[in-house]
Amino acid sequence: MKKLRYLTIEFDSEIAPYEVAAFRGAIAQKAGFEHVLFHNHQKDGTVIYKYPSIQYKRIGRNAAIVCIEDGVDEIHHFFQSRTWNIFIGDKELPLKVKSLNMNQITMQVWEKTFDYEINNWLPLNQDNFKIYLEIKDLKEKIEFLEKKLIGNIISMAKGIGWDVDKEIKMSISKLDEPRIIKHKSQKLLSFRAVFRTNVFIPNHLGIGKSASTGFGVVKSVNSN
Q1: Collapsing DSSP states into helix, strand and coil, what is residue 111?
Q2: What's the pTM?
Q3: Secondary structure of 139-172 in the HEC alphabet?
Q4: In 3-state terms, what secondary structure has residue 96?
Q5: How far apart are CA 189 and CA 218, in angstroms?
Q6: How far apart are CA 179 and CA 196, in angstroms?
Q7: Could you tell me if 1 and 106 are in contact, meaning their C-beta atoms sit under 8 angstroms apart?
């Protein structure tokens, strides 16, 4: 079991899906690049491979930030700025807070199950991308992705300091046709799926590859 501090900030300004990464960069610049949780890079530019404590995304069409644990403490570096206006490319974006919700979430494996959808999920690297394409049977494809989803949840759990000591149950009930996207000069498959698991996942948390920039966003659909 893990008590997780969880802060969701939604702004009233709209951004496009392809602008989320630029939104991240603009917020990190405003907060100060010396505060590494905003961008997860060392001073020399190398990536810090850890689960992101500050995540950038869209809620509806609006720009939003999700902060967990240490990210909750660090976000004040942005809010103490003289102005919250940022630039995405040449476009100035004035940010005003639409909603701010602070919660403490109990992360654990439950006896009951919960229903979710996950959007823009990137479960496959270059190696298992080829393995997935070779699987012809839909049931086998779903089972393959269910294992990846469990793996993503376990990876997230390790990143927040939660030791998963029970079996995670997983079933994907709906899987949309994946889209091929270009991400960081690589071609990847992006999935939308509806799934059921016995882990409670807070709304808008990101799991899987590039969780910090709007990929793998989980949302409750009709929890039991």
Answers
A1: strand
A2: 0.93
A3: HHHHHHHHHHHHHHHHHHHHHCCCCCCCCCCEEE
A4: coil
A5: 17
A6: 22
A7: yes
The Cα 184–Cα 47 span in angstroms is 13
The answer to whether 36 and 28 are in contact (CB under 8 A) is no
DSSP 222: S
Dump pLDDT digits (tens) for 130-144. Answer: 899 999 999 999 999
- d(C-alpha 204, C-alpha 118), whole Å: 9
Over the stretch 3-25, which tens digit does the pLDDT of each residue have? 999 999 999 999 999 999 999 99
Going from the N-terminus, what domains does the chain have, and what CATH number goes with each? 2-105 (3.30.70), 109-220 (3.30.70)
Q: List, as one string, the DSSP characters of 18-78.
A: GGHHHHHHHHHHHH-TTSGGGT-B-TTS-B--S--SEEEEEETTEEEEEEETHHHHHTHHH
- Residue found by looking up tokens 């012809």 in the block: 136
